[in-house]
Write a structure and sequence with these properties.
Layout lengths: L10 E10 L3 E10 L2 E12 L2 E10 L5 H15 L11
Antiparallel strand pairs: 1-2, 2-3, 3-4
Length: 90
């Protein structure tokens, strides 16, 4: 599993890179804190050789991911955006 530079108040349980480069990470991360487990969306940028949270670090566990994925797919198709296309059915 990749390392994620979350606050010391969290323990990383799991994570998924949506995008990762030498200077940017966007990821879904499962964390544990004194308040319990949470699914969070993060975006980090590397500045002066240190990772800094950039723009988002929010809980997203209550989001309707099926609806979000469907809407993202709709926008990708509607606007001709580049994105991962579903694998062809066999």
């Amino acid at each position: 599993m990749n390392e994620y530079p979350v606050s010391q108040t969290y323990t990383v349980l799991d994570g998924y890179d949506i995008y990762r480069s030498n200077n940017l990470i966007v990821a879904l991360v499962v964390v544990q804190s004194q308040f319990g487990k949470d699914l969070r969306l993060y975006r980090w940028m590397k500045r002066n050789d240190q990772w800094k949270v950039d723009l988002c670090r929010m809980g997203v566990g209550r989001w309707n991911w099926n609806e979000i994925a469907a809407k993202a797919g709709e926008f990708i198709e509607k606007y001709g955006l580049k994105g991962q296309q579903p694998a062809p059915e066999e």
